[in-house]
Amino acid sequence: MLIYFLWPSDESRIKKLIKEGAAAIEKEEIDKVMSKVSFSYQDEKGLNYILIKKILESQFKAMSGIKVEHENLKIEVKDKSASAYFDLRIIATMGNDTGYIIGDLKAPTRIKLFLEKERATWLVIKIEGIQTSF
Hints:
The structure is a single chain. Strands 1, 2, 3, 4 and 5 form a 5-stranded antiparallel β-sheet that branches. The protein contains 4 helices and 5 strands; from the N terminus they run ααααβββββ. The longest helix has 17 residues, at 10-26. With 134 residues, the chain is α+β, with helices and mostly antiparallel strands. It is globular and about 45 Å long. A hairpin with a 2-residue loop joins strand 2 and strand 3.
């Protein structure tokens, strides 16, 4: 009975994944970011685990002072799959210019993460809502 109350819920694990992922992006810690992504990641744009890692490495070299803001988190869990919806803004500096790279001051970008439970860990298998120019 004690284990049931001390064991974190799926929702709290997903909240932690998002919080740690945002912190890793701000610190430009590529390995920590990618530890939240499934090796089987695949989306409609043709992105997969390897491409995401290469894109992030390139972007981290070009940017500094990254700040991730997320709010209005909603999580839906169904057995070994889940989805998380939230509003996202990312601000960064490129050269001498600082500005929003995702979302803006008036309107954040609404993101949907698709997750799967692999053993006891939740991992992102797909993202919808981020517009890319690469």
